[in-house]
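Dear colleagues,

As part of the handover before I leave the project, I'm documenting each prediction I ran so the next person doesn't have to rerun anything. This entry is a single chain, and its sequence is reproduced below.
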Amino acid sequence: NVLQGPGGGMVYQGKIYMPIQAWATKAHTNHSDWVRTSGFIVSSDGGETWEASKMLIPNVDAKISNTDQMNNTSESNIFYHKGKIRLAVKRESGGQYAGNRLCFEYTQDANTGEWNWVKVEENFLPSNLTAIETSSHSVTEDVYFVSYSVGNRENPVLATNTGAKIQLATGAGLGYTSISSDDNNIYVLYEGV
């Protein structure tokens, strides 16, 4: 199964990028748990054809046999930073990385076309993010937004990787934000109570 839910795509340098999730159910794997992973699809021709990136778990059998220690992931969001494509994902369970938001930087080999990724740190974010999808949105090559909540999905915040923060609301909020912008405005839609 391939699906996507809360998250958002982008157009960057003439290409369309859309985050995706892939789930292998217990029935399909003969394993005690689902295997969940994230990646993206990209189109260079306005959506006529699509190419898939390397998924964070590229081989379900390797995950089941524990030779692949990558976390199970779900909701994802794609953005750019300093000319690189980044995929931020919700960590679902276990694996080699801690934290509820994981961020990976993708590069594509010019000769083979193969996508590869490395984990990147986002030290401007608190370590106790709520385990919900955290939306990301680039405004320039150097600056991007992340919306998040901490604790029990309270006091949602819009932060930049440069350290600026805007409190979106006080009290309970359910998270799952979506961010957009134009030349003069920032738009944030989030689940409230």
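Helices lie at 26-29, 60-64. The chain has two helices and 15 strands.

All the best with the project,
I.
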